[in-house]
Design brief:
By secondary structure, the protein is an alpha/beta fold. Helices cover 43% and strands 18% of the residues. The protein is built from eleven helices and eleven strands. The chain binds 6-O-phosphono-beta-D-fructofuranose (F6P). The site of 6-O-phosphono-beta-D-fructofuranose has 9 residues, from loops.
Length: 324
């Protein structure tokens, strides 16, 4: 391996810049070249490349977003698009890729690897933490801290007005953010896609909470929750059934994806970047680097995409006990 291309693709997440920095500097450390590919696979198709040396990544370890930009490329889903991308890589002398992103990014990387026998290594970057083979994806820890900080603020106004707030957090298919930030912020109920609480139990729980003397309530709901109503419908439903509650809704949205990465995410990004480049240099390909029991390990990309990430059921029980 003489020249590694690095890209970020799909939804951005805090820590992606720290990972780019790590890939670039690990390449420099091992005396190989590194090329930044802009806008993910779309930039690969268009040959939007830039040489990156160790000084080109100064002062980005603390920055949210991604300096390489991100995109979701429809063209890369076609064989013609991938052929164009491959031609650009060959022309630029790039002989290995580090792709930073979530399952869509890894799927693209895997297909590309199979078609052109091109060395690919994945780094998991998504706030949702829904990738198999790593206990933490880049940005997840930062997003948790962001959500807890915001819910603390919502709590202030909720308790001043004796209100119930439904707070919707990100998590299209996974409840990791909702469950962990919910416990961290002391939510009365947490609604996640992996477990359908049911409307009756929600009402029952809110009634109990009121009867026990609580003045304010926070219910955290993951956007992919399966209770059958969206957060605004839930507000109407609860107000219709429990008129004693004054309900408000707060949808946190994309603010959860921004901001300066936490120390945890910066360290994780640095470790994963080193492992990704060094694994390529050892001749490995088609893997994702991830964290398991605080050790950086490799998982085949196929497993990382297809494997199911479980939520910790014990956390549901802890949450129940905490809302007593
Ligand atoms: O990054 C993952 C995620 O945050 C999901 O939870 C969410 O549904 C999605 O991104 C929204 O992303 P976009 O607005 O970029 O399509």
């Amino acid at each position: 391996i003489k020249k590694v291309g690095v890209l970020t693709s799909g939804g951005d997440s805090p820590g992606m810049n720290a990972a780019i920095r790590s890939v670039v500097r690990t390449c420099a450390y091992h005396n190989i070249e590194c090329i930044g590919i802009y806008r993910g696979y779309q930039g690969m198709i268009e040959g939007d490349f830039k040489e990156m040396g160790p000084r080109s990544v100064n002062n980005i370890v603390n920055k949210g977003g991604t300096v390489l930009k991100s995109a979701r490329s429809l063209e890369f889903r076609t064989p013609e698009g991938r052929k164009k991308a491959h031609d650009h890589l060959v022309k630029a002398g790039i002989d290995a890729l580090v792709v930073i992103g979530g399952d869509g990014t890894f799927t693209g990387g895997m297909i590309f690897n199979a078609e052109f026998d091109f060395p690919v290594m994945g780094i998991p970057g998504t706030i949702d933490n829904d990738i198999f083979g790593t206990s933490h994806t880049l940005g997840y820890d930062t997003a948790l801290n962001t959500v807890v900080e915001v819910i603390d603020k919502i709590r202030d106004t909720a308790s001043s007005h004796n209100r119930l707030f439904f707070v919707e957090v990100m998590g299209r298919d996974a409840g990791h953010i909702a469950l962990n930030a919910g416990i961290g912020a002391g939510a009365e109920e947490i609604l996640i896609p992996e477990e359908n609480l049911g409307l009756d139990r929600l009402l029952e729980s809110l009634q109990k909470s009121k009867a026990s003397g609580k003045s304010s309530s926070i219910v955290v709901i993951a956007e992919g929750d399966k209770i059958g109503k969206n957060v605004f419908e839930l507000k109407d439903y609860v107000e219709a059934n429990l008129p004693e509650y004054d309900v408000r809704v707060s949808v946190l949205g994309h603010m959860q994806r921004g901001g300066s990465p936490s120390c945890f995410d910066r360290v994780l990004a640095s470790r994963l970047g080193v492992k990704a480049v060094e694994s390529l240099l050892e001749g490995k390909s088609n893997y994702m680097v991830g964290l398991q029991n605080d050790t950086v390990v490799l998982t085949p990309l196929e497993q990382a995409i297809k494997g199911k990430t479980e939520i910790d059921r014990e956390l549901l029980r802890v949450s129940d006990i905490m809302s007593t």
